[in-house]
Each structure stands twice: as C-alpha cells, then as structure tokens.
From TrEMBL:
One Pfam family, short name: SDH_alpha
Pathway note: Carbohydrate biosynthesis; gluconeogenesis
InterPro entries: ASB_dom_sf, Fe-S_L-Ser, Fe-S_L-Ser_mono, Ser_deHydtase-like_asu, Ser_deHydtase_bsu
EC number(s) on file: 4.3.1.17
Name this protein carries in UniProt: L-serine dehydratase
Keywords of this entry: 4Fe-4S, Gluconeogenesis, Iron, Iron-sulfur, Lyase, Metal-binding
Cofactor: [4Fe-4S] cluster
Serine dehydratase beta chain domain sequence ranges: 9-161
Amino acid sequence: MNNSPISTSIFDLFKVGPGPSSSHTIGPMKAAFDFLERLKKRPEATLQTADSVHIQLYGSLSATGKGHGTDRAIVAGLLGWQPESTDPTALLALLKEPAKTYPVQIGNRTIPLGVEHIHFERKKYESPYANTVVFKLVSAGETLFEQEYYSIGGGFIIRKGEEAADPSAIQLPYPYQTMKELKTRLYDHQLTLEQLMLANETAVTGRSAKEIDQRIDLLLDFMHKAVRRGLRHTGTLPGSIKLRRKAPVLFQQARGLAQSSDSFLIFLNAYCLAASEENAAGGIVVTAPTSGASGVIPGLTYLAKHHFHYDKTTLRAGMWAAAAVGFLVKHNASISGAEMGCMGEIGTASAMGAAFLTQCAGHSIGAVEAAAEIGIEHHLGMTCDPIGGYVQIPCIERNAMGAVKAYNAFLLATAGTPANQKISLDAVIKVMKATGRDMSTKYKETSEAGLALSATEC
C-alpha cells in the first residue's frame, strides 16, 4: 500500500480522450508528448545530428498494442497531439498507409517517423510495471537521448527516474488512505462525503468549488454525448473481428417494451454498450476509471439522469462517491488490466457505479462502502483476455454486465443494515491486490489465454 495520503484529482481519474484503451492509447500518447517536450530542452547541437526516433514497446503494450492502437497514439503524441483535443477520425487515419511517414519536430527541423520506428518487442524486459515504452533519439545508430515510461492504467503515466510529487507538500484538510480513515474523517468533522472530497479537491487543484462543479458537469456531458453517439451509430466496429454494434438495436427494443419489466435492464444495457462501442471505435470517451471500462459509469449516470430524473447536484454527489472508491482502489491496488486483470477495470468501475447509485439515493457512507465492496467482491479474479487485442470481445458486454452488477450491489447493500456487512471495502481491495499479484500474466491483457484464444472462431 502507498503510505502517503490520497491526493489524486477527480479530473485525473475521469479523463477525456480517445478510445479504445486508457493504458494503451491515452497513456502512450501522453508519454510521447512528454518525450517531445523534453526534446525541446536538449542542446540544439545534439538535435541537429539526430536522424530518427525509435520507440520500443514491452509487456502488454507489445502484446496487444496493435489492436489497442498504441502505435497510432504514439505517432499522435510525437506530432504534438493531446488526448482531450484529439480528433478521433484523424487518429484512426494515422498509419493507415504503411509507407507513409510523419514529420516530428526536432529542434528547428523535422525528421520522418514511420512504422519501422515502432518496435513491438516480444522479449522479456525488466521493468517495475507491465506496460513499458522506451523512446530513443538516434543518430547513425547511436542513442543520443532516451526516456522510459510506464503506463499504469487509467491514462496515468510514470517516467523512469522522475521524482514523484511529494503528497506531504499538499496540505490536505482531510487526509486519508483507506475507507476506514475516510469514514473517521467524516464522523469526526461531521461532514458529508461530498464536502470532504470537494475540500480535498480544492487543496489539490486550487480550483474553486464553482469551477469544480462546472468541470464535473462537463465530464458528465462528455459521458452522455458518448452514450448518445453510440445509440445512433450503426455498422461494424474497426478491426479484424468485424463486430457489429448492438446498442442501437437494444435501444429500439427497450423503447418498444416500455411497459415491460425487462425494459429497464435493456435500456441500461443499451446505454452501457453505446458508450463502450464508441470507445472500441476510437471515439472520445471518459476514463471511468479506464477506457476499457468507460461504459459502466456513463451508462449508469445516463440512466440516473433520464430515468430517475436526478438533478445536477445529486449526480455530482454520486460522482464524488464513485471517485472516492476509484481513488481507494488506485491507491491501494491498481486499476490497470495489465496489473489486475479485468477486475482492475470493470471490477473497479462496477464498485464505483454501485457507490454512485447508493450516494444518489441518499444512503449513508456505510451503505456506499457496502455497495462498493459487493461490486468488487463479485469481480475478483476476472481475467483480461481481449480477442485480437481489440477492446471489443469480451470488453463491450462486460461493461453492461458490470453496470448490472453495480445496480444489484446497490440493491443488496441497501436492503439491510450496512454494519452487518462482514467484509470491508479495505479488506476486499487487499484481496484484489493479492489476486492480481498471483494471477498468471497470460490473463492480464496479453491476449495469450482465455477468450483471446477463441480468435480463430470469430
């Protein structure tokens, strides 16, 4: 467990960017952009002799990077693009022509970047994280400048040798590392969860409460735009699987069964599939907490807004509960599929979704914790085994299943006394971390086992 207080911003957990994978698309794009920025600080004499940039991908970035669009994301980052402002159509167009090169600005000149400069390394590489990328500025075969990055899930990156920000430098009004500590702060200071989270967020980002509220509303807007696009778009998703979109069909079916008891679940499935299919198509989504799980929270929040008719204030309160759970998992385990398997992505999203629903319904912090614990508990050991490396099968349907589990976790947690819950959220996160550590690498986003081996049947 990290021994410092949680100082992650809600806007780092929920990030806007192109799909299909936060760890394989957004993270590498950010790393490439950071490398480009660092090149600008190198001596001009060094840059003048450079003739190429080479990129080496290791671990899951190598194993499934093609299907996840990691190569395109890296080209985009080296062209100076950033996730939130990237045009997804332009991103998908990169590397369509294998012979085409792209101009990378090195000092006062450009050098060409092509497919031959991006290397999907299959050999084992000693690294503290599963997803590693190494950038090298090269002159006549000699490395002039090198940087190594780790994509640790949810679009978060770490640069090798970088001094981690000192959390103690941020004076958090209500520091916590665990759910137990979080509840103690709430009880001791007689605060609501939203009040505590907002106070800490203000300390971390320096933004006012009004600015933070507006940005949360904007995040929800991005999520719901992804849902609406997905409900409209038909046809086949990119990639060799040729998977047909299902969300519009389900949505029309739900509308036709409006008086049926099944319509509620079909609507929820449609909303989750819609956002997830947009992610698989490389559209703009919100990491929640990852791109691979970007259908769960958008689907549930869309349902909460349009079926439960919750207002903005209620939806924001629910988002803070979801963020609190996401922070705890990221801090004490991992949200990365390459580290935890799919329980790190869909499992975390389902727990966040359960917390969101429980908070919106006005229940206690004890009920929020119980709902989140149930959400994770019933995803323990879930593998990450995408067919062909595409975030499609089983990922898209898993978003819908994760949302349904979140709703059921909310029902189970609020059906009795939360204090009677035998397993705490902190305990199940510890189990999650241990399970991820013990899980075979084959089942952690490498497409080397499980459903991924069914590719020949598709």
